[in-house]
Write a structure and sequence with these properties.
Blueprint (H helix, E strand, L loop, with lengths): L3 E2 L5 H10 L5 H11 L13 H10 E2 L4 E7 L3 E7 L5 E9 L2 E5 L3 E3 L14 E4 L2 H15 L3 E6 L9 H12 L11 E5 L3 H8 L6 E5 L5 H7 L8 H15 L3 E7 L7 H11 L4 E7 L13 H13 L3 E4 L13 H10 L1
Parallel strand pairs: 1-2, 6-9, 9-10, 10-11, 11-12, 12-13, 13-14
Antiparallel strand pairs: 3-4, 4-5, 5-6, 7-8
Helix pairs in contact: 1-2, 4-5, 6-8, 9-10
Bound molecules: S-adenosyl-L-homocysteine.
């Protein structure tokens, strides 16, 4: 029997596993508690019977990963992490005044093909399992001796293309007995997988939804985001509206600004008219240039003017510091530089 990573399961799933092992239900809570206190093995779970520890040890193991590279900047650190099958993923720690945010990857590589993004250049390799996403948090907390208070699923991969694993991951970290990160402190970022947005809206979780829009016109968006063919802008907007109405949560539209491509006043106006009336804010970020893509970031004066224009229409706007640009922190850039070395 092949052993499974026990951190792939939510507390409810563990309850079923425990029932199958003919053990009382409360054991699931005890085991779950130990796992997220970062126990190294089942032997450490001293309030379980010897017999149960043996049963667990026969069926499961506790996955832990390793950091193989780390790049530090004043307020962010990027980690390159190995998985059991030797695949590499990235995770980025961001330091803010209110605490630490971790930007978690949801897949190895990505199949969405966005023209400006490094994660997709080498294609899609595989989905990450819940335990591999949880371990990104636990590894960084262990390594830096800190507590992560917010999680953004904005690393490599498209979370709504790995829906079930991502939802189990969220349930594990949201669990009071697990990592205990409130739903409001978890952001899920999507390139606009419309059915996934509707499904997410119906989960009855107070997650923050971020949608990578990057253009307000289909033709322009399609030129940089192939996913727009399947899910055009009007369908995304309807889905986001539904999300905000269902959850009462303010959605975020991410808008990466590419010099001379999507950053004119006219672009801003189109964007404002598109999203006016939706409970949302816009997050502007000058694009991180990735050598292969040839795109350049908008100059800061343009970014400010774009912001002013949106504000004229009463839209809430924030400008994201381009955290980590110097450390290849845009999605997939560090992993990409490693893959290049191997080529
Ligand atoms: N697949 C999801 C989450 C991962 S990407 C999504 O598309 O939202 C996280 C964010 O970074 C997205 O808004 C994405 O469009 C943006 N992004 C990717 N590459 C970038 C780059 N080179 N510069 C700026 N933003 C980038």
């Amino acid at each position: 029997m092949e052993k499974k990573n026990i951190k792939d399961y939510t507390q409810n799933e563990l309850k079923e596993i425990i029932a199958d092992l003919d053990e009382p239900g409360y054991r699931a809570g005890q085991i779950f508690g130990w796992l997220y206190k970062d126990a190294d093995d089942f032997e450490a779970m001293t309030n379980l019977s010897k017999e149960l520890r043996t049963k667990l040890n026969e069926r499961f193991y506790i996955f832990k990963s390793n950091i193989i590279d780390e790049k530090n900047l004043t307020d962010s650190t990027k980690f390159l992490i190995t998985l059991e099958d030797n695949n590499l993923i990235e995770t980025v720690l961001l330091r803010y005044k209110y605490g630490y945010t971790l930007c978690v990857s949801s897949q190895v590589g990505c199949k969405m093909g966005c023209g400006f993004c490094a994660s997709t250049i080498n294609g899609f390799v595989r989905d990450l399992k819940p335990g591999e996403m949880v371990e990104q948090i636990m590894l960084v907390e262990r390594h830096k001796n800190i507590r992560v208070s917010r999680v953004v699923i904005m690393g490599s991969g498209e979370p709504l293309d790995n829906y079930d694993n991502v939802m189990r991951f969220i349930r594990i970290i949201n669990d009071k007995n697990g990592i205990n990160i409130g739903a409001r402190h978890i952001t899920i970022s999507t390139c606009g997988i419309v059915p996934g947005i509707y499904k997410l809206a119906d989960e009855k979780l107070q997650l923050t939804l971020a949608v990578s829009l990057h253009a307000a016109m289909d033709e322009k968006r399609l030129a940089i985001m192939p996913v727009n063919r399947a899910y055009p802008i009007k369908d995304i907007i309807s889905a986001v509206k539904y999300y905000t109405e269902r959850t009462n949560r303010r959605a975020t539209f991410e808008y990466s600004m590419i010099r001379g491509f999507n950053d004119t006043d006219e672009d801003a106006e189109k964007l404002a008219l598109l999203i006016r009336g939706i409970l949302c804010n816009v997050n502007l970020i000058p694009i991180n240039s990735v050598e292969e893509t040839g795109f350049l970031p908008s100059v800061s004066e343009r970014v400010m003017k774009f912001k002013d224009k949106l504000e004229e229409f009463g839209i809430n706007v924030t400008i994201r510091r381009s955290l980590g640009e110097e450390i290849d922190a845009a999605c997939g850039q560090l992993r990409r530089s490693y893959l290049e070395k191997q080529e």
